[in-house]
Amino acid sequence: MNYPLSSSVNPGDATLADQYNRLRSDALRFGADENASVTVAEMLRSYRSPLRLTIEGPALRLEASAAQPCALLINGVPAEVRAPLTLTLSAAEFPNGGNLSIAAKKTPSSPGFELTAKETSVPLNPDERKIAEITFNAAKNEIESFALADGDRVPSFSAETVPLAPCGRLTFVSGNPFPAFDVAQAVTLYFTPYQGREIALFNPSRGWRMERFDELSLPLAGLNAACCYDIFLTRTAAGAALRAEPWASLTNRNRALIRQDGVPVLDGNPEFRYLGTLGLSEKGKSRDTASERNLWNLHGAAYRPLRKLCAPAQIAPSVINRWTAYARDETAAVSAVIGFGSAGFTLSAVGSLQSISTGCALVGIGIDAPLGDPDLIVNSAELTAQAVSPGPLTAMMIGRDSARHLGKHTYAMIAYATGSGTVFNGNCHPQNQIGLSGGFFG
Fold first, then answer.
1. 138-153 pLDDT, tens digit each
2. What domain range is 308 assigned to?
3. 106 and 124 in contact (C-beta within 8 Å)?
4. 100 — phi, psi (to 5°)?
């Protein structure tokens, strides 16, 4: 097909019927045959520019600006807005909540439109076009779910949607998103449903799409304990699947995380949505105990307590004027994996001084401290107080630095003595609770 069919007309030339018909055909059908094509208006009837929507509580906001306007056809009439639109729902207007249609309503005598909401059972007016369907919880006064509409059809869970928090959680126990007990050994990682079974995944050519999932699993066989692993969810031909991306070490990522529409994804692969970070206790195996937390969740975060008590009864330090393992107990340590920021990390060390002849004594916390070499041990606690007489010793660590606790770190209880005759208490009394205690969110 040659396009355009029409040619230029010079002033004074006679305008023929076939010239007019060619112009009309060009305008209506790009010069295509009338019996084998639709008109441009019919083709564009369902057109809309990409919608950028955000949700906060009961409010739905459509982003638009002069540089990035939002345009669409409403019953064949072009409409456009160049400023944000906000629609706030209320329990007074929709006391029963439920599914609601969100529509763009053409404003009279202007090129713009406004947002309206009505129950899905109520038909739309000729000047309205449905752009989304939501679920409104009137009791909580918030929007719980959202899906963009395609023409008059609300897509299924494979449809475009806003990337809300995923309904799932990483765990070492099948079917249990929040194990209330220690997991001494795990050989499989699970992503189990939690408060639902949907998650939005990004498609580079189609945007965010909702994915339903049953419990997913990832065998740990072959994974290395010398590094951490970021855990991602992605879509394959068989459905949603977990993927593990190794770090360069226990404390440094090999591939960075970036944000797609505010959601953490793998740099270079936005279809890989970040769920959390995994550490291992040995090759192909992991554990989750009060003294070793190897799994961190970005979503559905729960408080993860840390605790380890000192084993010896009473003992003097191995050297003075150096930081050493408290009461010579190198097992008085905890470890934790954190994938993002500080996760509200806090840790306290509580010791006890039995006796001291000269000088002073302190207790501290060492991060990844080489306990076999006192010359290299550093106290990383934010607060440490000395004692010059028998009594309690304390130190505190607070996650004030977002990068300080990133990855997998070991936190050891350490002590310092400047004089002779120093003896530290451990479990010498049945009621003693000497050791480390704290936690973080993940």
1. 888 888 777 777 543 3
2. 304-441
3. no
4. -130, 145
